Amino acid sequence: MEELFNPVTAGKIELSNRLVMAPMTRSRASVAGEVPELAATYYAQRASAGLIITEATQINTIGQGYIRTPGLHTSEQVAAWRGVTTAVHDAGGRIVAQLVHCGRIGHPVLYPGRVLPIGPSAIASGEQLFHTDGMLDHPVPREMTQADIEETIADFVAAARKAIEAGFDGVELHGANGFLLHQFLADGTNRRTDGYGGSVAGRIRFTVEVVRAVADAVGAERVGIKLSPGITYNGISESDTAELYSVLVEALTAFPLAYIHVSENVNRDITRLIRASWPGTLLLNAHPTAESYPSNPGIGAEAVREGVADAVVLAEYWLANPDLPERIRSGGPYNTADKASFYGGDHRGYTDYPTLNA
Question: What share of the chain is helix, strand, coil (3-state, %, to 5)?
Fold first, then answer.
């Protein structure tokens, strides 16, 4: 798997290898959205990745979709993240902040004034929020107005600037997994009749405007975007996946972005379509078959050899193996991820996975 150890460039970000740590929500932030001090240890332990993508980080208060997730919209949150970026850089790593607005995936209990979550259309997800009060049904969101759209774009820009202030090497816009950008893209969640809905050209407009605004603010070569074509997570549905992503990726070629990050969903044909259309760096969380979950280094190396990816994004393998490159070179063995400690808790299942040397 030597192809995984060649350097690659993603915009202005130099990756020492092609092993990327996936964004993974760990639900260990404070109620105020500040990552804990232990997060610096967690991320720095994994600094041998060519690139670390942080857990999804909300751009504003109403962008939060889950309990104990971090933000990048207050000075205190910036200061907490600066401890992380300093630790990663001191360990020789590169790290970008994944910026998210969860849209309709939220609940009034998360927001001051218990306001409704917002979305492109007033369509509930059919999913639930895990909360200390129990499992709570996502309500029907309030359909966003033009003013809401403009304010949200401005909040993406502000969060991106705060990310650079916090020391990140760049940002990744979360356009996947059924969150707000994806909700605008998908015809199952976007039933608008204005310029932000209807045709594919209308449905991609919000995402393209967010990309343009953030690229203008911090530099396109420090901006990536995550896409998950065909995924049904969070109640999302697309009836025109091939056309949608063909048009979207073509529009994104107008910007010299650092990368596109694709989360594959047993649809290698769509991945190839994106690869053929995108001239820049492509990061791939490879799932070519139903048996390929979770993705592993061998599956990723095959994707690089086939030319459908420039770098591979792994989740559970990085979570459980902080020294993953060393383990790959040694042919294993690999620690097994403890699913019971994925979300919430303390250092257990977070910073206590042993290295080979240990």
Answer: 35, 15, 45
